């Protein structure tokens, strides 16, 4: 029973739940980025380089023979994956940069000076009384 209760304590910790949510959102974000790259970014790039579709770029290493499929080196899909990665990495960089800027602004924001303790107030009053007594002409 100890292992089950330990697992339950681990599984419901905030960090584990946050990580699971992050992974799910990351997977969904990955689909969005793949669509953005494949459907929005790559067509103009392909047009600029002569109408080439990166996904179709490949080298046939061995032609198909009967029921045996061809051996193809699909380097265009690799180029597509690298571009996907670069866009995701840049988006994450920009997000982290924005968060760090907000943290710096929060740290720079002036905080109120700490209020003096009762002892400090009392000592200040005693100092002022002594100074007033010493300043009186005798």
TrEMBL record:
Q: Name one Pfam family in it.
A: MscL
**Compartment list:** Cell inner membrane; Cell membrane
Q: What is its main location?
A: membrane
UniProt keyword Ion transport present: yes
Q: List the membrane topology term(s).
A: Multi-pass membrane protein
Which PROSITE patterns is this protein grouped with? MSCL
Q: Which residues cross the membrane?
A: 16-37, 78-96
Could you state a single Gene Ontology molecular function term? mechanosensitive monoatomic ion channel activity
Q: Which GO terms describe its cellular component?
A: plasma membrane
- Give the protein's function: Channel that opens in response to stretch forces in the membrane lipid bilayer. May participate in the regulation of osmotic pressure changes within the cell.
Q: Which family does it belong to?
A: Belongs to the MscL family.
Assembly description: Homopentamer.
List the NCBIfam families.
mscL, PRK00567.1-4
* Protein name as it appears in the record: Large-conductance mechanosensitive channel
The organism named in the record is Pseudomonas veronii
Gene that encodes the chain? mscL
């Amino acid at each position: 029973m100890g292992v089950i209760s330990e697992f339950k304590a681990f599984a419901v910790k905030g960090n584990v739940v946050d990580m699971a949510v992050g992974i799910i959102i990351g997977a969904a974000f990955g689909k969005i980025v793949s669509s953005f790259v494949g459907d929005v970014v790559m067509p103009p790039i392909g047009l600029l380089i002569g109408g080439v579709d990166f996904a179709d770029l490949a080298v046939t290493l061995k032609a198909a023979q009967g029921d045996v499929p061809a051996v193809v080196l699909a380097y265009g899909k690799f180029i597509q994956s690298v571009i996907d990665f670069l866009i995701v990495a840049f988006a994450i960089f920009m997000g982290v940069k924005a968060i760090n800027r907000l943290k710096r602004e929060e740290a720079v924001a002036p905080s109120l000076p700490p209020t003096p303790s009762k002892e400090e107030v009392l000592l200040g009053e005693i100092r002022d009384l002594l100074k007033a007594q010493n300043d009186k002409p005798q």
